[in-house]
Design goal:
Belongs to the universal ribosomal protein uL4 family. Keywords: Ribonucleoprotein, Ribosomal protein, RNA-binding, rRNA-binding. This is Large ribosomal subunit protein uL4. One of its GO terms (biological process) is translation. The chain has 206 residues and is α/β, with parallel strands linked by helices. It folds into 2 domains: 152 residues, Ribosomal protein L4/L1 (Ribosomal Protein L4, Chain: A, 3-Layer(aba) Sandwich), CATH 3.40.1370; 50 residues, no CATH class. 34% of the residues lie in helices and 16% in strands. Strands 2-1-3-6-4-5 form a 6-stranded mixed beta sheet, sandwiched between helices. The two termini are 13 Å apart.
Length: 206
């Protein structure tokens, strides 16, 4: 089992924690990690873009001039793509970009992402994250104490004060154990998790 240090909000080590190898010590599957990221980004796309082809734009029913004898190139419609106001060649149409991964693939990708953060010493466990009031400055002090700039903060519960305190820091995102995903784990340099959050993750994914 991998061991990580447990820190308090002042950045002082207060203990150690054993991590379950079934979650934080798996063999990293880079292909599945990539597929999970591609799937997540693709599934966020609305797919509502639309432009009209030459068959959909209005007008252009009459041939602009006769076929021969004018000196112009032959034209059949003023709504062909080369005309101003004409249709678009290979115009985009609404479509579904969804890429599906099965449950086991998603879980293994998440475990691989977590394992990679532990292996790179970018996984920090804190004994607790509690804020008496929503203060961005105080939360920034906690990050400075832990020597972290860009972080994904994983909480075990919906702590309103912590979430509001972190919300205005551009390089920080908060998430609960049931909303963590591969893209966010990889996007942020460091994962900060409370000890309770780590236990919950192990219970769910082990």
């Amino acid at each position: 089992m991998a061991k990580v240090s447990v820190y308090n909000m002042e950045g002082q080590q207060v203990g150690e924690m054993d991590l379950n190898d079934a979650v934080f010590g798996v063999e990293v599957n880079e292909h599945l990690v990539k597929m999970a990221v591609v799937s997540q980004l693709a599934n966020k796309r609305q797919g509502t873009q639309k432009a009209k082809t030459r068959s959909e734009v209005s007008g252009g029913g009459r041939k602009p001039w006769r076929q021969k004898g004018t000196g112009h190139a032959r034209q059949g419609s003023t709504r062909a793509p080369q005309w101003t106001g004409g249709g678009v060649v290979f115009a985009p149409a609404p479509r579904d970009y969804t890429i599906k991964l099965n449950k086991k693939e998603k879980q293994l990708a998440l475990k691989s992402a977590l394992t990679s953060r532990v292996a790179a010493n970018k996984f920090i466990v804190v004994d607790a994250l509690k804020m008496e009031e929503a203060k961005t400055k105080k939360f920034q002090t906690v990050l400075d104490n832990l020597k972290v700039n860009k972080a994904l903060v994983v909480l075990n519960e919906n702590d309103k004060n912590v979430i509001l305190s972190a919300r205005n820091i551009p390089a920080v995102k908060t998430a609960q154990t049931n909303t963590i995903n591969v893209y966010d784990i990889l996007k942020y340099d460091t994962v900060i998790a409370t000890s309770d959050a780590v236990k919950t993750i192990e219970e769910v994914y082990a």
